[in-house]
Each structure stands twice: as structure tokens, then as C-alpha cells.
Specification:
Blueprint lengths: L11 H10 L6 E2 L4 E2 L1 H11 L7 E6 L9 E6 L2 H6 L6 E4 L2 H11 L9 E7 L4 E7 L11 H15 L1
Length: 160
Amino acid sequence: MNFFYPNFINDMWRIFGLAFFDDKAHFVDEANKTFKLDELKAFLTVKGVGLYDTATAVNRTTGTAADKDLEVIEPTDLDALLLKVPDCTNVVVTGQLAADVLRAHFNIAQQPKVGTYVPFIFQPDGRQMRLYRMPSSSRAYPLKVEKKAQFYRAMFDETL
């Protein structure tokens, strides 16, 4: 699948299924061991959920996607990205590295705890924003997918 969170083992799209439809298989194409990409894209568009990475180039130092094994080579131009979506008032990260990149870029001193947010001002246009820290959708993150979905559901209830 040529999209975000393509790994069938990763639970992001199961979390979305649970958070919005109480069905972790809602976006799952079990027969083909993939996800229903067209359905996902349409759903995300209707809900106004955008996805992007905090880095446009990384070096995987050991061949894994774990934060500790990633080196940011080229960070995303976050200011340019957010200026293109002026209605965006919430940014959500699912990993510590992404949280650290955003906090450093936007000079956010406080680290949000998992399932919470910290407010910040997007300086280029003065927009009030929130940085949410959600649990990782990786199965390596020690929390059941149903519990992860509860965090996401609560965040979406606040933001959508």
C-alpha cells in the first residue's frame, strides 16, 4: 500500500476503525493482508484529517522503524506545510521522535503526556494550536489496540 502506515502489522488503521466505527476490521482487507486504501482516503478527506511525516528523509540506522533507530536527515518544512492548511489547529504525533522534532521546531517547552496535548502558537500566522501526543500504533508499544483507540477517540471527539 503506497500510503501512510502501510505495514499490515501496524495497528493505525485498526485504531481508526475502532475509534470511529467500533470495528477494528473496518478498514482492513483481510483477504489481501492490506488496508482499504480508497475507503481510507475518502474517510480521511471527509473528516478533514491530514497526514504527513516530520521528516522527508531519514536514515534507518539498524533497519527498524523504531525512533531510537532513526536519524533525521531532512526535516519537513513544518511552517510551509502548516501555512498551506490555515484551518489546521491540531497536530498529532504518535512517536517520541516526532514529538521532539515538533517541540524543537515550535519551541514548545512542555512534553505532552500520552493522550494529552500542549497548546502552542504557530508564529508565522499567530494561530493557536495544540500538539497532541498519542500512543504509537506499533504493536511494539505495550498497550492493547482497544486502549490505544480510546485515546484516539477522545482526541478526535475534542478536535473534529
